[in-house]
Amino acid sequence: MLSPINRKRRNNAELMDIQRIENAILETVAASAARLTPQHLEKTISAIYGLDKTRAKTVLKDLVARGELEYTYEFGSTYLVVSFNKPVRISAHVVVKPPGHRFQPLPDDVVIRIQPGAAFGGGRHPTTRLSVRAIEYVLKTVRPNWLSADCSVLDIGTGSGILAIAAVCLGVKKGLGIDVDPCAIAEASINLDLNHLQDRLVVSDRNIEVIDSSYSLVIANLRYPSLVRYSTRIAKLTAPNGRVVLSGFRTHEMQDLWRLYTGRHFEQVWSADELDWAAIALKKI
Q: pLDDT per residue over 150-206, tens digit each?
């Protein structure tokens, strides 16, 4: 029979093993380009860590119960994905927080409140995270000289409004988010209210072709064909020495997109990719 001390040591060791397994599962789900079914994860856990089927299921259920993972249903199949129904850090300084959740930010954090909804841009997709990282780089690391002036941001295809909100929270004075989807306009308006930015940001269903102002920062998280089609217009809407953040394209499309925008008098200042999606930040020259 184990002594109380040895029993405690064994329990602590088992707890550390389970925590290690849980962390590995979360990293696997977050890094996977493909959606993973519960059955696939159960088999993976059993094969790698030697857990029986019942214990593997329990580990996954515990992660779901704690809000680390959540079930999603698509095309007749159930998958497990990283949950965003809690505060989630999506860049070095930006945390996305649903309403009603507590979060203790670090001194340099920016906490963005986003109401879960149908509009794109809750932080779940790699292009949203990449765009926020690019915005953070431009505004927090580079800190261009126009940032302290009456600078402005244009977010093309604003969705939930998260990128425009991030830009303003990181230092831009005012901005406009445009989207042709009425659902996006409605949900972005709610998110502006949640972040108390009604006086600094406007969302509109105006088409990009009717906008005639110039902006210090232009953001476009759109698919590759749209980024190509709007390249001339984006160049015209970007103020001299302004910055552009582009995402929504695949890694293999980055080089062609960079060449196109170089021909529009931009130079690349930052790039990154995640799960075969990519983003670039450009400076107008």
A: 999 999 999 999 999 999 999 999 999 999 999 999 999 999 999 999 999 999 999
The answer to whether 167 touches 220, Cβ cutoff 8 Å, is: no
Q: Are residues 142 and 70 in the same domain?
A: no
pLDDT single digits (tens) 84-116: 888 999 999 999 999 988 899 999 999 999 998
Question: For residues 3 and 18, what is the distance between their CA atoms, to the nearest angstrom?
Answer: 23
Residue 23 lies in a domain: yes
Average pLDDT over residues 25-51: 89
| Rounded mean pLDDT, 120-136 | 93
Identify the DSSP state of 145.
Answer: G
Q: What Å distances lie between residue 280 and 52, 131, 138, CA to CA? A: 45, 8, 11
Please report where in the chains the tokens 């999603």 appear, as a residue. Answer: 72
Helices (H), the chain: 4-31, 38-49, 53-65, 126-136, 162-169, 182-194, 224-229, 231-237, 254-262
Angle between helices 162-169 and 182-194 (to 10 degrees): 30
- The owner of tokens 């009604």 is 198
User: What confidence tens digit (pLDDT) does each residue in 209-251 have?
Assistant: 999 999 999 999 999 999 999 999 999 999 999 999 999 999 9
Q: Domain with 29 in it: what CATH number?
A: 1.10.10.10
How many angstroms separate the CA atoms of 182 and 92, rounded? 32
Burial 156-170 (b: 16+ CB within 10 A, else e): bbbbbbbbbbbbbbb
Same domain, 123 and 224: yes
**Going by DSSP bridges, is the β-strand pair 110-113/152-156 parallel, antiparallel, or unpaired?**
unpaired
Residue 208, C-beta contacts closer than 8 angstroms, at least 6 positions apart: 156, 178, 230, 233, 237
